[in-house]
Amino acid sequence: MINYLSIPWIMIMHARQHIQHTPEPVAIIGAGPAGASLAYWLASAGREVLLFDGSGGSEKHCGGGVPARTLDQFPWLRDIASPSTQANSILFTADRGQSAEVALSRPITLYARSGFDAALRNLARGSGATLIAGRVRAIGRDGPCWTVRTDAGEFSAGFIAGADGASSLVRRTLAQPFSRRALSLCAGYYIPASDPRRISVAFLKRRAAYAWFFPCPGLASAGVVAPLIGARREELLHEVRAWLAGLYPGQVFDFSRPYAAIVPTYHRGNAPYRGEGWALVGDAAGVADPVTREGIYFSIQSSALLAAAILDGNNAAYGPMLSRFLKSSFGGAVIPNICLFRPFFTYRFTQLLARQQDARMVIDRFISGALDYRNIKRTLATLNLK
Length: 386
Ligand SMILES: Cc1cc2nc3c(=O)[nH]c(=O)nc-3n(C[C@H](O)[C@H](O)[C@H](O)COP(=O)(O)OP(=O)(O)OC[C@H]3O[C@@H](n4cnc5c(N)ncnc54)[C@H](O)[C@@H]3O)c2cc1C
Fold this sequence. Notes:
Blueprint: H1 7-17, E1 26-29, H2 33-44, E2 49-53, E3 65-66, H3 68-73, E4 84-93, E5 99-111, H4 113-126, E6 130-133, E7 136-142, E8 145-150, E9 153-157, E10 159-162, H5 169-174, E11 183-192, E12 198-203, E13 210-214, E14 219-227, H6 233-247, E15 258-264, E16 274-275, E17 278-280, H7 296-311, H8 318-330, H9 334-339, H10 343-355, H11 357-368, H12 373-382
Parallel strand pairs: 1-2, 1-10, 2-6, 4-12, 10-17
Antiparallel strand pairs: 3-5, 4-5, 7-8, 8-9, 11-14, 11-15, 12-13, 13-14, 16-17
This protein binds flavin-adenine dinucleotide.
């Protein structure tokens, strides 16, 4: 059976052989992981690319965690010059205090997002993309020609890719807004990393919510993520502080750098992902994992699919390809999302991890990306889990 995660590479190689040169550049709005990798692929294949970014170097709020699957799928990420650390275990804690540590056979690489994003932008520039610093204020259309209005002036383009994150201007202008059910709220703090090799995750009483501590290089990221509906920033911040006080008793934290941010996760209502002359990738398309809220891998993967479609001269193929990819990635995620976060289940789950090496191995394989939601259920069913 074809592993269609490998298709973008095949298509990009194929498309490079009969690339169609058009006079109009591709305008990519947003140079996070989705936009910068799209720019890298298109410019490497000889397309003229204008890559717009308005972050001004400020850091994207993120845990910066990248599992082994991402680096296997996109090996060029291993070579980017960005400070990183490697976490080789995860401590899971259930609401009732039960805990279990899972050793990772393949570590999770943790990046500080400012360095990671800057390295990706350099890669895009090195491959020939033009980076234009400044916010895009509006996009307009005259027939097949787009106008991009920015702080740095006006630019023309033949195609617009919206890689502008959770509050995407491109989505707001050309597609429908996200349903609130597709959105999660994250709130937390940047604090010194006291345990540089271990990630901590705690299941909370709150529905579909968990707390994390990611020891990124520089400052660690600690936070709580919960469905946006019913979540309030101050309550989540309070839960982070209470959790950290239990996790590191006696330690005094500097809570002077709070943050809050939205993650759009996969939801069937996030489509359409494209229209005539435009497409959405990454958070702007709403491709993050609806359970873990991991988004970097899925954002880059969506860009690989769009690059393949553009280079093949068949932009319309992008929507169905992305839908198939997301369904195959998250099709089995409904059950975990319903039960994973119920206190009884999280207690049993953590107890199981603490007691059984086989269960820890299954979770280790899931975290590295060797198992997905569908086959993790099958694999767990084959174990003698008492
Ligand atoms: C608190 C938190 C923790 C997370 N932790 C993880 C994690 O550990 N691992 C993981 O895989 N995922 C994590 N995610 C999800 C992940 O951060 C996102 O899925 C990922 O960053 C999406 O990449 P992107 O390129 O689509 O968007 P972004 O990274 O948001 O990049 C969008 C870019 O567009 C720019 N932009 C926006 N509007 C405009 C405009 N009008 N003009 C010009 N530029 C514009 C922005 O400045 C930004 O640079 C986390 C998210 C949050 C909120």
